[in-house]
Specification:
Layout (H helix, E strand, L loop, with lengths): L1 E3 L3 E5 L2 E3 L2 E2 L9 E4 L2 E5 L2 E3 L2 E2 L6 E4 L7 E6 L2 E3 L9 E4 L6 E6 L2 E2 L15 E3 L4 E4 L54 E2 L5 E4 L3 E5 L4 E2 L8 E6 L5 E5 L2 E5 L5 E10 L5 E11 L1 H5 L10 E2 L10 E19 L5 E20 L6 E9 L2 E9 L2
């Protein structure tokens, strides 16, 4: 950007990176202010290059009656390069006057004064052009305490509201640079719960609908896997598909989601795979007697699935008892229940040890022993 001829100019909320000036004007890889007065407010200059002077801003006066003045406030000037004066250069080769006033800037300069800092700004991902501040950036809440004379826009380049309490110290101060830090909202998995499907068919979940994250709801990295090798899982374009050809049973499935900033959430559910004939002709599969299957997995850590079959519609209850015979959890109580059923036991609040699973169906009672290991 070339400014010349006694102009009065303001540059704010602007990003300059990887510009290159090979010849002309003596330098200024991003901004060359010649015989003018320029205010640079809340800008970021990164890896701009000039062959001669000032990789970022050249403040250049050619004559005594044409001074050059640059006021640079709340701006980051980092890793810019030139043969002379890497970031900012005041140049008056004859009788001119060139003056720069830097306040509350992140810049490689000594001595430090007027609120300037000389520390790595810690961008999120400058290699990919992401110059938003990480949560550890020293530029957060490090700008000018008084912005009344700066005529700032209400939002930054990304639309984030200016002047927020980024470091959460109960004092809202503007950040240095083109972006105002926005505390990342961690993703939250929602809407994924235990399910069942028929062996030989598919079960599909749209992962885009299963996460709450206002920052980046459609730029998530998902991981989905199971302890059961017979349960086939594929994830493509945020769609996860479950298949289990020729296999029936129950398995744990683990979901993990990570946002572009590294924040994550995870959950575990149980999946029950039933036979096709059980759906097509359930009356033919009704057992002759009540069956309580061994829980899976067993031993288990915190969560297990309990499956059972009931031959006819009857009132049932499923409870967990400790070795003293005390009821520690009632998992199910239904007035009418028939056929294949399953229920999960979340035992996170129970100590390690042996427990009894008790199925009561009408006048019949069946028990199984299980082992909780933490």
């Amino acid at each position: 950007m070339h400014i010349e001829g006694g102009m009065i100019c303001t540059i704010d909320n602007s990003l300059f990176y990887e510009n290159y000036l090979e010849t002309g004007g003596g330098g200024g890889g991003a901004v060359c202010n010649v015989n003018s007065t320029t205010s640079i407010i809340n800008c970021t200059f990164y890896k701009n290059t000039a062959v001669l002077r000032a990789g970022a801003v050249l403040n250049y006066s050619t004559t005594a009656d044409a001074p050059a003045f640059a006021a640079i406030v709340n701006s980051i000037l980092w890793q810019n390069s030139a043969s002379f004066d890497r970031d900012v250069c005041d140049y008056a080769p004859s009788t001119g006057t060139a003056t720069s006033d830097l306040r509350y800037c992140c810049i490689r300069i000594e001595p430090l004064q007027n609120g300037n800092i000389n520390s790595e700004p810690d961008f999120l991902d400058p290699g990919l052009g992401n110059f938003q501040l990480s949560e550890n950036s020293p530029c957060i809440d490090a700008g000018s305490p008084d912005t009344s004379s700066l005529n700032l826009p209400e939002t930054d380049l990304a639309g984030n509201r200016r002047i927020t309490d980024g470091d959460q110290d109960s004092q809202a101060v503007i950040d240095i640079g083109v972006y105002e830090f926005k505390l990342n909202q961690h993703p939250l998995i929602s809407g994924i719960s235990d399910f069942s499907f028929v062996s030989g068919e598919s079960y599909i979940i749209n992962l885009d609908t299963c996460v709450i994250d206002d920052d980046s709801p459609h730029r998530m990295n998902w991981s989905v896997h199971s302890t059961a090798t017979a349960l086939l899982i594929s994830v493509e374009n945020q769609i996860v598909t479950f298949q289990a050809p020729g296999w029936t049973g129950s398995a744990d499935v683990y979901f993990s989601v990570t946002d572009p900033y590294g924040a994550s959430d995870s959950t575990r559910i149980s999946v029950l795979v039933t036979s096709a004939s059980a759906v097509e002709a359930p009356n033919l599969l009704l057992p002759e007697s009540i069956q309580l299957f061994q829980n899976y997995p067993n031993p288990f850590n915190a969560r297990t699935i309990i499956a059972f079959e009931v031959p006819e519609s009857t009132e049932i209850s499923v409870g967990i008892f400790n070795m003293k015979g005390e009821l520690v959890a009632e998992l199910m109580r239904e007035r009418e229940c028939m056929g294949m059923n399953s229920v999960a036991w979340d035992a996170g609040n129970c100590p390690s040890g042996s427990y009894f699973i008790r199925l009561a169906a009408g006048a019949h009672i069946v028990t199984k022993k299980c082992l909780l290991l933490k």
